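In the previous chapter we treated chains in isolation. Here, by contrast, the input contains two separate entities that must be folded as one system, with a combined length of 798 residues.
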Amino acid sequence: MILKKFILKLALLVIAFIGLYCFFIDKLSKGYVDEYYNKFTQEAGGLIIGLSRANEGISPYILEEELKDNLKNTKPIINFAINEAHFGKIYHESINKKMLKTNNGLFIISISPGNFTAPYGLDENQIYEFDKKLKMGKINNFTSSPNYDYIINNYGLPLYNTLHELDKWNHRTSHNNGWNEVILKSPNNTITDKDIAYWKSLNIKFYNDKAKHEKVAAYRHKWFIKTIKELIGKGNVFLVRMPSDMDILKLENNYWDEFDSEMDSISNFYGVPYFNYSNKSSEYKTYDGSHLESESAKKFTKQLCLDIKDFLKTKK
Amino acid sequence: MLFNSFEFLLFFPIMIIGFYTITHKYRWLWLLLGSYYFYMAHEFELVILLFISTVVDYFCGLRIPTADRKFKKLYLLISVFVNLGILFSFKYLSFFTSSIQGLLSFFGVVISSTENLGSYNFNQILIPVGISFYTFQTLSYTIDIYRGKIEPEKHFGVFALYVSFFPQLVAGPIERASRLIPQLKRKVEINLSNIKKGLIMMAWGFFLKVVVADRLGVYVDAAFSDPEYSHGLPLLIGALFFAGQIYYDFSAYTTIAIGAAKTMGVDLMQNFNRPFFATSISDLWKRWHISLVEWLRDYLFIPLGGSKGSKLKTIRNVFILFFAVGLWHGASWTFVIWGILNGIILILEGLTSSVRKHIFKSLQLNQWTINLLARLFGVSYLLMTLIFFRSPSLDHALLYIKQMFNITGLHVNILNNYFELALSFILIILVQTIHYFKGNDKVYELVTQRPKYIRYAMYTAYIFVIVLFAINRQNTFIYFQF
């Protein structure tokens, strides 16, 4: 009898704990989770794939609008680029789970040397395990709304933050289609040239440190090719090297001087176009040396659309 | 499997229910299967090392008492060779090869591992979780049999359970066979009081881990990530928080382990005894990671002569002891330096004992003031040495220390979250206040001795605190890497 009472009390405590936890997770799902959450809440007809530059620099709205007459059934286009999404089995599988069944999708794959690196000394399995610990590796569900799988496994703040308005960076807007737009002028602040220069110096340091600790991995290259091959069967694939600050591009080119020629070869071999905008970087403005601010992102996406339209015309 | 994971939340009740449902005769099998599952859920393939270590020590242990003198030593050597061999191959080989390469390159001889050691990259070897713990635990078994202190365990299953008992398998405490095996064989009846005590200890351990240690870890990660770009107070707070993080993290694991074992009627040894209240560095080392220090004392320091020989010999032995403490923690010079710095201060503490007494006497300081000064010095020294423990390289540690003393302002917050910073300090004060009255091993008394309605209020508050204030990252325990 005493034992039964004890087990009952214990069960009540566990139920109370689980109930309270679920309540706050649900509450969180109804508000702002984080800047990446919207990338994981719906199925996609087209995807923007890549790292943080694509996350902030390519607008799905513009792609959908500008290409509506050229490409059918690609909606919704989701910006599925994320700063830790290097090419690999995890990202490949995530893309597959994210997509609607289609053979007419649109896939913008943003590439730079950074997409292909992994920490020194790791073999293929270890890189896979490394990726598994990142956002996409921790979840199985990429399309539900609300996405409890994402929240439980990736929300990094204590849950008391659901009880108040989160103090977000008010220069960034996380759109429902996954695009993270960064504006230079927010209602109460402006990103100055001094800020940009400082953040650029931090980014240069970051890239230098990355070059010391990471190397181009054959594993990433292998999965990049696998991803291209798979996506070719699902629609139109475009490889894009985005504009960035000249100093940062110089660093990247020093790190992998054959990058563009290798991508050209891959582009020719698989018949997917490679649009290289790195030599047009001076036409666009970044807010930190690496990532395009809103106006430049829109301008860049429009230019990309023009080039895609031209390509599709030629193809016909 | 992590203690702070949803899997453990399912695994543990199943283990307990199974344990008390199965008859005593087969409980060892249930716990053994559970323990291997617990390990394999984390590292599937590397469980083979645990098994090899178990098989070798079981057979060596059986043979030692009956063998003649020459063979006794041989069996002991086999056990030592296999266990330390596993430990060396998986934990230290990469460190030694890179150190030798570094030393040779200092003299102008450049050797690349791919040219001279085949194409294998030693950095690719994964360090099996808990390897330093279970190899030391099982080594003590064969050494104790060799010394005639214990009889070998004839039941292979019970012995395998001693090596792999899931609560303490991956991060200790490092138990001796003489303490643990009899408890594993003892018939345990359901004891609600013990189960309650164990569960409260586990709950306290979870609080220390997910609310306190992981919270401090967020600030620590930011402070240690790039000391070049910070200086002064943020780095000082980072170092202070790391001392807190490592203590609360490791003692949280131990408390959960002791609590989990207690629910099954097994009393594991205490591994921490309120180290921040130590009145000297030697006192601190009697309170910090007790099971490791006692292991090294019994199987390394005393066989070397301990403190019984000349002063010089004692200094040498203390130095070797702390070199081993450092090396045990990790295959890196930062850990070795951390160990050596602790050894040096202990040697200095011993050498200056009479001088200090004389100074305190001449200054007419009372005992309370002396203890306070000693505690402040002890914690400050611990904080400084732990910078080496946390840093990825010696250069990084030295830069951190240099930047930490470059105080030019009162900017303290590198996370731009003053609430979290304040909360971290409040939690440290709260836990230390609780520790002032009760150690982790007796913390249940703060709950069980209260009236019913206060207990229920405490349980409710606990649930809210864990749900709302836990850092939701499922971080591994720091000591898993050792």
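The first strand of chain A starts at residue 46 and ends at 49. The mean pLDDT of chain A is 91. Compare these points with the single-chain example from earlier in the chapter.
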